[in-house]
Specification:
Blueprint (H helix, E strand, L loop, with lengths): L38 H17 L7 H24 L2 E3 L5 E3 L1 H19 L4 H11 L10 H9 L8
Antiparallel strand pairs: 1-2
Amino acid sequence: MDSKMNFSAALPAVGASSVRSAGVETTSPDPPPVIGLKDNEVEVYQYICASLRAAGVEHLTAGMPLAIIVRTFVDWIAASEECAEKGRSQISKTGWATPTPWADDEKRLKMELGQWLPKACLTIPSLARVRKDTGEKGGQDDLFGDLVSHAINSPARSSTH
Protein backbone atom coordinates (compact mmCIF):
# COMPACT_ATOMS: atom_id res chain seq x y z
CA MET A 1 0.00 0.00 0.00
CA ASP A 2 1.22 3.53 -0.73
CA SER A 3 2.83 5.36 2.13
CA LYS A 4 1.04 8.51 0.90
CA MET A 5 -2.68 7.90 1.14
CA ASN A 6 -5.13 9.55 -1.22
CA PHE A 7 -8.37 10.46 0.50
CA SER A 8 -9.94 12.48 -2.31
CA ALA A 9 -13.56 11.63 -2.94
CA ALA A 10 -16.71 13.44 -3.88
CA LEU A 11 -19.12 14.39 -1.14
CA PRO A 12 -22.34 12.42 -1.08
CA ALA A 13 -25.40 14.11 -2.49
CA VAL A 14 -27.67 14.22 0.55
CA GLY A 15 -30.64 16.46 1.19
CA ALA A 16 -30.09 20.10 0.31
CA SER A 17 -27.15 21.06 -1.86
CA SER A 18 -25.45 22.82 1.03
CA VAL A 19 -25.86 23.98 4.59
CA ARG A 20 -24.41 27.45 4.88
CA SER A 21 -24.79 29.96 7.64
CA ALA A 22 -26.43 33.16 6.51
CA GLY A 23 -23.75 34.29 4.04
CA VAL A 24 -20.81 33.38 6.28
CA GLU A 25 -17.90 31.38 4.86
CA THR A 26 -17.32 28.15 6.79
CA THR A 27 -13.84 28.03 8.32
CA SER A 28 -11.89 25.18 9.86
CA PRO A 29 -9.94 25.09 13.11
CA ASP A 30 -6.25 24.38 13.29
CA PRO A 31 -5.39 21.03 14.84
CA PRO A 32 -4.65 21.23 18.57
CA PRO A 33 -0.97 22.17 18.91
CA VAL A 34 -0.09 19.74 21.72
CA ILE A 35 -1.24 16.62 19.90
CA GLY A 36 1.55 16.85 17.30
CA LEU A 37 -0.13 15.23 14.30
CA LYS A 38 2.18 13.38 11.91
CA ASP A 39 2.23 14.29 8.21
CA ASN A 40 -0.24 11.56 7.19
CA GLU A 41 -2.53 12.55 10.09
CA VAL A 42 -2.41 16.22 8.99
CA GLU A 43 -3.47 15.10 5.50
CA VAL A 44 -6.48 13.27 6.93
CA TYR A 45 -7.30 16.25 9.18
CA GLN A 46 -7.20 18.64 6.21
CA TYR A 47 -9.30 16.26 4.12
CA ILE A 48 -11.98 16.06 6.82
CA CYS A 49 -12.01 19.84 7.28
CA ALA A 50 -12.21 20.41 3.51
CA SER A 51 -15.13 17.97 3.28
CA LEU A 52 -16.96 19.69 6.13
CA ARG A 53 -16.32 23.13 4.57
CA ALA A 54 -17.55 21.91 1.18
CA ALA A 55 -20.70 20.59 2.84
CA GLY A 56 -21.11 23.89 4.70
CA VAL A 57 -21.04 22.22 8.10
CA GLU A 58 -19.79 24.57 10.79
CA HIS A 59 -16.94 22.94 12.69
CA LEU A 60 -14.81 25.80 14.00
CA THR A 61 -14.88 24.47 17.57
CA ALA A 62 -14.29 20.83 16.58
CA GLY A 63 -10.47 20.77 16.55
CA MET A 64 -10.06 18.31 19.40
CA PRO A 65 -12.77 15.83 18.32
CA LEU A 66 -11.46 15.93 14.75
CA ALA A 67 -7.92 15.25 16.00
CA ILE A 68 -9.23 12.26 17.97
CA ILE A 69 -11.07 10.99 14.89
CA VAL A 70 -7.94 11.43 12.76
CA ARG A 71 -5.73 9.52 15.21
CA THR A 72 -8.33 6.76 15.56
CA PHE A 73 -8.74 6.49 11.79
CA VAL A 74 -5.00 6.33 11.09
CA ASP A 75 -4.55 3.74 13.86
CA TRP A 76 -7.43 1.71 12.42
CA ILE A 77 -5.82 1.78 8.96
CA ALA A 78 -2.52 0.56 10.48
CA ALA A 79 -4.30 -2.24 12.39
CA SER A 80 -6.22 -3.27 9.26
CA GLU A 81 -2.97 -3.46 7.28
CA GLU A 82 -1.39 -5.55 10.03
CA CYS A 83 -4.38 -7.91 9.95
CA ALA A 84 -4.00 -8.24 6.18
CA GLU A 85 -0.27 -9.01 6.52
CA LYS A 86 -0.22 -11.24 9.62
CA GLY A 87 -3.75 -12.59 9.81
CA ARG A 88 -6.57 -12.12 12.28
CA SER A 89 -6.19 -15.24 14.39
CA GLN A 90 -3.46 -17.34 15.89
CA ILE A 91 -3.44 -21.02 16.80
CA SER A 92 -1.97 -22.06 20.14
CA LYS A 93 0.09 -25.22 20.66
CA THR A 94 -3.03 -26.96 21.94
CA GLY A 95 -4.95 -26.06 18.76
CA TRP A 96 -7.00 -23.29 20.31
CA ALA A 97 -7.68 -20.36 17.91
CA THR A 98 -7.64 -16.86 19.36
CA PRO A 99 -7.75 -13.42 17.77
CA THR A 100 -4.45 -11.62 17.42
CA PRO A 101 -3.90 -8.43 19.45
CA TRP A 102 -3.90 -6.29 16.29
CA ALA A 103 -7.21 -7.86 15.23
CA ASP A 104 -8.69 -6.85 18.59
CA ASP A 105 -7.26 -3.34 18.10
CA GLU A 106 -8.76 -3.14 14.60
CA LYS A 107 -12.17 -4.20 15.91
CA ARG A 108 -12.06 -1.74 18.84
CA LEU A 109 -10.89 1.17 16.67
CA LYS A 110 -13.61 0.46 14.12
CA MET A 111 -16.23 0.58 16.89
CA GLU A 112 -14.78 3.86 18.19
CA LEU A 113 -14.97 5.36 14.71
CA GLY A 114 -18.58 4.22 14.49
CA GLN A 115 -19.30 6.28 17.60
CA TRP A 116 -17.22 9.37 16.72
CA LEU A 117 -17.99 9.85 13.01
CA PRO A 118 -21.73 10.61 13.37
CA LYS A 119 -21.00 13.08 16.17
CA ALA A 120 -18.77 15.06 13.79
CA CYS A 121 -21.32 14.88 10.94
CA LEU A 122 -19.02 12.57 8.96
CA THR A 123 -21.58 9.95 7.96
CA ILE A 124 -24.28 10.19 5.32
CA PRO A 125 -27.16 9.75 7.83
CA SER A 126 -25.73 12.37 10.22
CA LEU A 127 -25.18 14.84 7.36
CA ALA A 128 -28.73 14.22 6.12
CA ARG A 129 -30.08 14.81 9.65
CA VAL A 130 -28.19 18.10 9.97
CA ARG A 131 -29.39 19.25 6.56
CA LYS A 132 -32.95 18.31 7.45
CA ASP A 133 -32.77 20.08 10.82
CA THR A 134 -31.05 23.24 9.58
CA GLY A 135 -32.49 23.46 6.10
CA GLU A 136 -30.86 25.54 3.39
CA LYS A 137 -30.45 28.57 5.64
CA GLY A 138 -28.63 27.00 8.56
CA GLY A 139 -27.32 29.09 11.43
CA GLN A 140 -29.36 30.23 14.39
CA ASP A 141 -33.12 30.64 14.15
CA ASP A 142 -34.59 34.13 14.10
CA LEU A 143 -37.26 33.80 16.75
CA PHE A 144 -39.01 37.06 15.93
CA GLY A 145 -38.41 37.26 12.17
CA ASP A 146 -41.99 36.45 11.20
CA LEU A 147 -43.44 38.86 13.74
CA VAL A 148 -41.18 41.74 12.67
CA SER A 149 -41.88 41.02 9.00
CA HIS A 150 -45.62 41.06 9.67
CA ALA A 151 -45.37 44.35 11.57
CA ILE A 152 -43.31 46.00 8.84
CA ASN A 153 -45.58 44.83 6.02
CA SER A 154 -48.89 45.62 7.77
CA PRO A 155 -50.78 48.73 6.67
CA ALA A 156 -49.92 51.74 8.75
CA ARG A 157 -52.39 52.31 11.54
CA SER A 158 -52.37 54.92 14.17
CA SER A 159 -51.10 53.84 17.53
CA THR A 160 -53.76 52.95 20.09
CA HIS A 161 -51.46 53.97 22.92
